[in-house]
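Tutorial, part two.
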Amino acid sequence: MVIDYNLLRPLRALLEERSVTRAARRMHMSQPAMSGALARLRAHYDDRLLLRHGNQHVLTPLGERLLAAIPHAIAEAEQVFRLQSRFDPATSSRSFTIAAVDYMTARIAAPLSRIVEREAPNVRFDFPSADGRLVNAMPDALRTIDGAILPHGYVLDQPHIDFGPEAWVCLVDSASGVPEQATADELFTRPWVQTVPVREGMSPARQQLRFRGIDPRVVAATPHFFVVPSLLIGTDRVAIVPEAFARMAVESEPRLRMVVAPLDLDPVRDAFWWHRDREHDAEHVWLRSVLERVRDGLIRDPDGGHTRDRLP
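Running the prediction step on this input gives:
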């Protein structure tokens, strides 16, 4: 069987758009050319892939399986063609993808941008969210991106660069009546905001609370740290977050106050993780050297220069 790898991108467009017309427009192809690609794909798989259902098209069971698999296949193929024996950041137009929660992206963005602007002006960075789907697919998900910034415990047996440990602290509205030296009862009997969607589990801090037999009542959850302040202001709610983010939030929103957690929780230990297949890639070695410099700067200045900026 002869495999035409040029059909990978049309296949992805057809499965995601579920329309020959929209797929052709997305790929900047003529509609007859896309129809021809679909015919070749149907012949290859011996499957219709797309079926008309009323006024729209739906995927066959094989089409659904392909839709789940093809982003990883394309990412790995692109990685093969990106490999180089040498990497010159000054002339490269390489695009790096680093997944992280919004708070960690914000922490590294300024120092990373300063280095890249100076040393690699044409290099680009993409920062997708480190959501539950990506985390649950670890470590294989690391094959499709250049790396992810996640706390220890989510990724096992992969190389990483540790960032400095951060204490967990609580954020509350200043008018909520929570004292600066709050007791466990004063905090854990209140409604809580969680920084991981309930359907995706618990944050590392809440997992530790659960191990201690404490299970606060969660009334709101978001994967976006920068949404947390708006879920706290004007309420008696509590959120537990890394200290550097709490400082950013309080500096930006004076109505918030940081409260020391009354329990001795293990600090959050974020790290940049990458798949061991990338270990010797020239461009990835450069990326890691840059992130080490970013990490060292954040250890010297934990706020990363962000406390002067307004949160979104």
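The CA atoms of residues 185 and 262 lie 9 Å apart. In part three we will examine how such features are distributed along the chain.
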